[in-house]
């Protein structure tokens, strides 16, 4: 009987502590103002999905970031066809999302090319959270196993 009372008391104390932590973090930033100019209507088959986060909500922890990179080990399918480099590589890409909303692909041989069919919204949907910042491109490639 006493063990159950002690367990109940500990559970209630843990709930109170959790509620106190949540109460400290209830302030949310204001939502961005809606865009007043309507966008031109596009046909349904060419609609592009909106970006994952509006620019105001994207976390930027370092102002000197030139871009983001991630590994893409599987074959990269764009518009229903497998993308291949001119050297014949079709998998194990490094995908770069640059500050100017361009997406670049780099094969294992080191050939880099801009891919206009991919954009920042595609990158945000397919990438994981940033796990490290690197001062140079070589450090970033070494972190990704290249």
Written account of the structure:
The protein has 146 residues and is α+β, with helices and mostly antiparallel strands. The protein has a domain at 66-143. 25% of the residues lie in helices and 16% in strands. It has three helices and six strands, in the order αββββββαα. A hairpin with a 4-residue loop joins β4 (93-98) and β5 (103-106). It is elongated.
Relative helix content:
25-40%
Largest sheet: 4 strands, antiparallel
Count the E strands.
6
Portion of residues in beta strands equals 15-25%
Integer average pLDDT: 75
Radius of gyration: 23 Å
Structural class: alpha+beta
User: In one word, what is the shape?
Assistant: elongated
Which regions are unreliable across 5 or more consecutive residues at pLDDT < 50? none
Strand order in the sheet with the most strands: 1-4-5-6
How many DSSP H or I helices?
A: 3
Topology overview:
Layout lengths: L1 H23 L42 E6 L4 E2 L2 E2 L10 E6 L4 E4 L5 E3 L5 H7 L10 H7 L3
Antiparallel strand pairs: 1-4, 2-3, 4-5, 5-6
What are the main properties of this structure?
146 residues, alpha+beta, four-stranded antiparallel β-sheet, two-stranded antiparallel ribbon, 25% helix, 16% strand
Quick structural summary:
The protein is 25% helix and 16% strand.
């Amino acid at each position: 009987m006493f063990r159950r009372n002690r367990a109940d008391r500990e559970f209630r104390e843990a709930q109170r502590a959790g509620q106190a932590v949540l109460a400290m973090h209830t302030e949310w930033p204001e939502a961005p103002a809606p865009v007043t100019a309507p966008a031109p209507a596009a046909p349904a088959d060419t609609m592009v999905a909106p970006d994952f986060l509006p620019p105001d909500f994207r976390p930027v922890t370092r102002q000197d970031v030139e871009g983001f990179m991630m590994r893409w080990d599987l074959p990269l399918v764009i518009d229903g066809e497998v993308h291949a480099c001119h050297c014949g590589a079709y998998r194990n890409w490094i995908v770069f999302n640059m500050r100017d909303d361009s997406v670049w692909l780099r094969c294992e041989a080191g050939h880099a090319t801009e891919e206009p069919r991919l954009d920042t919204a595609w990158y945000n949907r397919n990438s994981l959270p940033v796990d490290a910042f690197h001062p140079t491109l070589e450090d970033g490639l070494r972190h990704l196993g290249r």
